[in-house]
Amino acid sequence: MMASTSAGQQRYVRAKPYPEWKVKVLKELEELIKKHSVIMIFDLRELPASMLHQYRRVLRGHGVVKVFRNKLFLIALRRIYGDSVNAEIEKYLSGENGFIFTNENPFDLYRIIVDNSVRRYAKPGDVLQSDIIVPAGNTGINPGPVLSRFSKLKIPTQIRDGKIWVARDTQVAKPGDTVTPELADLLRLINVKPVYESLKVKAVLLNAKYIIKGEELAIDVKAYEDMFKQAASWAFNLAVNSALLIPETISVLIGRAVVEARNLAINANIPTAESIGFILAKAQSQANALAAVLANKAPELSK
To answer: What does the alpha-carbon distance between residue 187 and residue 181 come to, in Å, rounded to a whole number?
Structure first.
């Protein structure tokens, strides 16, 4: 049920009392929600416990990583924010989810998550994001029927000192390829972990009102840097061509004005300290050109 608050907002009120363990969890959730303006929701399905523990360590100091039931999370959220909670958040609360409570920029936090991706073995059905190269060298594997696996994937091998050696670095897959059971089995056998896996962020909730989809967090920082540089360059050129006097353009505009004034004085034959040398040089050049023309038509004048 809903009850009015002093501010006129509606807040969630449960008709029946909660069990003691739920009261404790709800209290913890409410405190986390009150202290943090940003809540990141990530998918727990097929997430290894070891990866979850690693991210708890990685994100220590950046945010609090917790696992709660979806319904309890939604109840706590509504108890704090009432009807101002963005209703669309419910569609991101299906299945098993984890939550990161933070006050940091969600894009910066997502970059930390991606930068700390965990390497794992490829599984059949994985779609690869990069080339897979089987490195040359000793595999440490005894020769036997396993040789047929290398042969099937066209990996050249040699037998040395009773072990299988890969003769040369060999590409066995490229970006966009789907991992086959044979490839997954062989990569695990030679201990190659080609897949990087990180938390699968479903959405970010800002102050319970605004939602950022998980896929929108993966921005190309370099591309945005290039865009800002290009925009700054265009703005600078516009300011210069518009003769807009600002700290960034003043030296360029003064320099251009000096050059234009000097050129005007030279072309108008106005002798100044800055132009006299150029005027005399121009006069000398013109005189030499005239003498060359006259020399061809009246050689006696050149003596």
So the answer is: 10
